[in-house]
Structures are given as C-alpha cells and as structure tokens.
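Sequence design from tokenized structure. All designs in this work follow the same two-part layout: the structure record, then the generated sequence. An example of the structure record is given first.
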C-alpha cells in the first residue's frame, strides 16, 4: 500500500501536522500531571496553622495533615472544639483558641505559633474559618448583617494573613485561602458572596505581591458540602428572624406564601447540591500544601467543576435566567406582569377601536 492510499484510509493518524498537534497536546497533559504530582520534602519539619478547626473542613484537614506527619497547629473557636480535636488526633497536634474577629485573640495565637515554629517559620497558613448567616434576599438585610459575615470571612482573614506573613516569609511558605463558588458567582444576598469575592481578590493581590519572596498563594473554591455553614436549621432560623422584622409593605410585596416557598426551594437546592464527602475539599487544601507546584485555584466538588464555575463564565443574562429558576417569584413581580399585560391589552383595544 503506497503512502497516498494509506493516508486516504487513515487521515488523522498519517497526516504529519495532525500527529504533531495531537502529540504536543498529549505531552503537555502528561507533563502537567507529572508536575502536579511532584511533592515537597521534609513534611515532618514543617508547621501548618489552620483556622476554624472546631468542625467541618478545618477539623478534617487538621486530622488529615496530622496523619501525614505535618506539625499541625489547629485553632478552634471554642474549648469544646479544642478538646474534641485533641482527642481525635495525635499528641503532636497542638490547638489554640482563636476568634478571627478579635485582634487580641489573633495576637495571642500568633505568639503561640511563633513559639512553636521557632526559627523555621511557618510553612502553611490555611484561612478556613467562616460563617454564612445572615444569608438571603438582599432587601431583607441591614448593614449589621453584612458586617457579621464580612468581619469573619474577609476582615478576619486579612488581619490573620498580615500578622502571620513575617513567619510565612521566613519559611518561604504558603497561604491557602478558602473562598467559595459563591466568590465567583453571586447568587445569595448578604455578606457571604461579598466576603468570598473579597477573599478571591485579596488572594490574587497577595499572590502577585508575594511571588518575589517565594510565597505561594492558593484559593479553594468548594461547591456545596454538608457542614456547619450549610446547616439548613441554622440558615432557616436566621431567615425567619429576617422575615419577621420586615415592614408589612416589604413583606406584602413578596406575598404571604413567599417565605415557605423560599425555604422549600432552598432546601431542594441544598439537598440536590450538597455532598457529604468533605475530603474532596481537604484533599485540595492538602495538595496546596504538599505539591511542589501548588495550583492557584482549586474547584472542589462536582457541582463546582461542572455547574457553578462554568456558569460564572456565561453571559450574565443566561446566569440570571438559570438562577431565577432556583427560587420562587415574589407576588409583586406577578402583579407587575399582570399590570403590564393589562395595559398592553388596553392599548391594543384603544388602537383597534380608536373611537
Ligand atoms: N460547606 C460548604 O458548602 C462550603 C462551601 C464553600 C466554602 N465554604 C467555606 O469553608 C470554610 C469552612 O466552613 P465549613 O463548611 O467547614 O463549615 P463549618 O463546619 O461551620 O466550619 C467553619 C468553622 O469556622 C469557625 N468559626 C466561625 N466563626 C469564627 C470566628 N469568628 N473565629 C474563628 N472561627 C470561627 C466555626 O466555629 P463554630 O462551629 O464553633 O461556629 C467552624 O468551626 C468557610 O470559610 C466556608 O465559608 C464552605
């Protein structure tokens, strides 16, 4: 079989340009996987400080890193959180109390960590502590509701990072900031999305500014997982508080049925999206700490990778349409549509029968 006949049977395999392109793509993917799999050495000599370890991602991460051999310093908001974590981990893991909204508490935790790490500095800072409530329709919020979330998720994270930066610089270490898909696509009112957009932008600036000092900054963008921040009991209780304090006019514009419909829609979405396998998130955090070349962004969970993050790239009118389908419609919106429909109807009548 001569070359011409062969190429007509196997155009993709035999065509040299296509072969080179496919070969290059395959080699790039292979190289990326090899690079992504490279690990740092001397984990046993490295210290990692994690915030918000009472429950959820922080709690699992602290235990996971402890098993890996890191020197973990886990900060908890409560005494009980500290005791429970100590009971579930090796004696090597240290705990410290920390409220990320309290500068004095941050200072005490810093002193503790400084003593623990000595001259080696801090290899990893994982800013994980966070809260979600108050979260709900924007119009139901007051300024204080925004502050409650921003203080923990954004201002607390910034203050801790700035105070711990000299220790991280010493170790040419890493900062791992927990954002969210809600930091890429805003689909709930209140401080949560704002705070996570803030975490994204703070992390981007930090990464660009600190690259000269060998510090790497990674952002974790989890989808929905069953933890304290997605607890429907907590979110619904707080929504009830917001609903109850609305003025009668605002409440009427939503309609009497709205609150119940909102809770049902929210519960349906949460039950559809929330995964109980939180190791998908902690594995990303661990990779950011042990990989020789940590990634800048980690989308964690199938909903993040295949729904929320792609949706954040589509034109806003498509995202608005999709997100609208997830929540009920306030009564006032239907009244306005009826009003518009009636006025068009009247206009037609006038035009058809002008006399
Ligand atoms: N679960 C999800 O679907 C999801 C998705 C995207 C991003 N995230 C983010 O992931 C991080 C961890 O949340 P999680 O899902 O693991 O929920 P979680 O179980 O509620 O963990 C959050 C932790 O932060 C602690 N915390 C709250 N306020 C604090 C403060 N002022 N100072 C120090 N610690 C404080 C909480 O302590 P208490 O329990 O004692 O209040 C809790 O241990 C948060 O930043 C959250 O926004 C979660």
């Amino acid at each position: 079989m001569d070359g011409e006949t062969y190429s007509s049977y196997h155009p993709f395999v035999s065509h040299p340009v296509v072969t080179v392109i496919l070969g290059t793509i395959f080699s790039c993917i292979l190289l990326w996987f090899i690079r992504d799999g490279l690990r740092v050495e001397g984990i046993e000599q490295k210290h990692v400080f994690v915030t918000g370890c009472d429950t959820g991602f922080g709690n699992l991460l602290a235990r996971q890193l402890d098993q890996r051999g890191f020197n973990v310093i886990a900060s908890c908001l409560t005494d009980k959180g500290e005791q429970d974590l100590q009971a579930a981990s090796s004696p090597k893991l240290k705990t410290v109390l920390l409220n990320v909204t309290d500068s004095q508490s941050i200072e005490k935790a810093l002193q503790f960590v400084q003593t623990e790490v000595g001259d080696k500095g801090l290899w990893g800072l994982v800013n994980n502590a966070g809260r979600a409530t108050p979260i709900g329709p924007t119009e139901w919020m007051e300024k204080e509701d925004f502050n409650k979330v921003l203080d923990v998720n954004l201002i607390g994270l910034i203050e801790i990072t700035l105070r711990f930066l000299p220790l991280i610089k010493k170790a040419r270490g890493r900062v791992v900031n927990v954002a969210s898909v809600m930091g890429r696509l805003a689909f709930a009112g209140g401080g949560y999305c704002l705070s996570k957009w803030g975490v994204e932008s703070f992390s981007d600036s930090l990464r660009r500014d600190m690259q000269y000092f060998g510090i790497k900054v990674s952002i974790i963008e989890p989808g929905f997982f069953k933890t304290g921040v997605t607890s429907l009991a907590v979110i619904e209780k707080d929504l009830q508080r917001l609903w109850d304090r609305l003025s009668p006019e605002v409440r009427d514009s939503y309609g009497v049925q709205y609150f119940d419909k909102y809770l049902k829609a929210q519960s349906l979405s949460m039950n559809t999206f929330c995964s109980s396998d939180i190791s998908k998130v902690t594995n990303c955090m661990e990779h950011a700490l042990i990989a020789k070349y940590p990634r800048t962004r980690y989308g964690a969970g199938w909903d993040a990778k295949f729904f929320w993050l792609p949706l954040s790239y589509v034109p806003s009118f498509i995202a608005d349409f999709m997100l609208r389908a997830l929540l009920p419609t306030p009564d006032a919106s239907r009244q306005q549509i009826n009003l518009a429909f009636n006025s068009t109807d009247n206009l037609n009548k006038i035009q058809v029968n002008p006399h």
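The chain has one domain: 43-329. We note this feature because it recurs in several other targets discussed in the main text.
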